[in-house]
Predict the structure of tRNA (Adenine(22)-N(1))-methyltransferase.
Amino acid sequence: MNELKLSKRLEAVAAHIPKESILADIGSDHAYLPCYAYLQGIIKSGIAGEVVEGPYQSALQQVRKTELEHVIEVRKGDGLDVIFPNEVTCLTIAGMGGTLIQSILEKGKEKLEGVQTLILQPNIGAKKIRLWLLQNKWELVAETILQEDGRIYEILVAKRGEETQPYKDNKSAYLLVGPFLAKERNEIFLKKWSHELAHWKRIVEQLETAAKSEANEKKMKELNENIRLVEEVLKIENS
């Protein structure tokens, strides 16, 4: 992977960046995404943000190597601390857990002033991001699911707004599995949730034979609810 050829996952993220954006890529690692987006004529300029020294130095070297210092700025800082309000129009956060992405967005909410598009790629826990978007008046407008190197990834795209249309049919289930993904219902989506269902059911079986405890009862209740929601979505989509 380099500034000319991204991973399948990051290419899918880049495909959602609006033309002429001013991009901030949080947790940019080698800054491949902003460099690629500029070289492909997608963005006008970009910021690569990194909190860890090693990746920060890697991003600096990458930007220098591609001679893009005049359009890509590498900044060291925690989450959205690397940007100012009204500085960027598109924000990408890719390759982190949903809980961490949610925390970054919540902690830096005031920095999102002027941002028109959020493109978020959680490795796990996409439901937490959908909930945050809904609670903070960001409209989910697109989703992508893909598989690369044996792992399945989801990409969520949101715009400013209060529209809850994607969730009107089955809010609880669609927050979990994704309203657009559920309606598209492609092979990777079916694979992901078939595996999740089987995994959850095995855990429930184990908990049923385990010692009774409040924690086990709570976990069983949560898993059984998730199983019900996913089976309901798959049934709806099959009907």
The first helix runs from residue 8 to 15.
